[in-house]
Specification:
5-stranded parallel sheet
Length: 185
């Protein structure tokens, strides 16, 4: 049953709805909701854009891996990860082996609509953000799929409806999918 499920980790591109869906899912499950980007900000006292500006993407990704390692060890949480968390093989292993990974798959047009006015996303502060989103999607989509136990299209229905669909999938989730992946590592 759903109460016995391990932690649930949400992955996907920026603008996929990881935070929105994560908060609603956590409420439905009676679990704590955590966001890896917010966690990094609380640990450093600086926002993601500042970390990118001062340490570059590589510095941020090091912080992100430490955060993903810590957060994925917490029991029975719902975690929203940053869009690029899957770029690290170490992060993918932490996520896939320590909980149920849900890939919220948002098409580039949905991502663009949801992030168009958001100045807090360092990777989109470029002349052609749609091309950036397309390039990131092309690179990251196979990694999201590799790490995911469940893939859910997003951007075409209301968040509460999506959460209900996800709860149905979680209720029938075969826990041996996680056990099998742990035995392969």
């Amino acid at each position: 049953m759903v109460e016995e499920l391990p932690s649930v980790f949400l992955v996907g591109p920026m603008g996929a709805g990881k935070t929105t869906i994560g908060k609603l899912l956590a409420k439905q499950l009676g679990r704590e909701f955590l966001d890896s980007d917010w966690y990094i900000e609380s640990q450093t006292g600086a926002d993601i854009a500042w970390i990118f500006a001062k340490e570059g993407e590589a510095g941020f990704r090091e912080r992100e891996t430490r955060a993903i390692d810590e957060l994925t060890q917490k029991p029975q949480i719902v975690l929203a990860t940053g869009g690029g968390a899957v770029m690290s093989a170490e992060n993918r292993a932490f996520l896939h082996q320590r909980g149920i990974v849900v890939y919220l798959n948002a098409p580039v047009d949905v991502q663009m609509a949801r992030t168009a006015k958001d100045k807090s996303r360092p990777l989109l502060q470029q002349p052609n953000p749609k091309q950036i989103l397309q390039d990131l999607y092309s690179i990251r989509d196979p990694l999201y799929r590799q790490v995911a136990h469940i893939i859910m299209p997003t951007g075409h229905t209301y968040p509460r409806y999506m959460v209900n669909q996800l709860l149905q999938q979680l209720a029938s989730f075969d826990m041996s999918a996680i056990t099998a992946s742990n035995n392969r590592s």
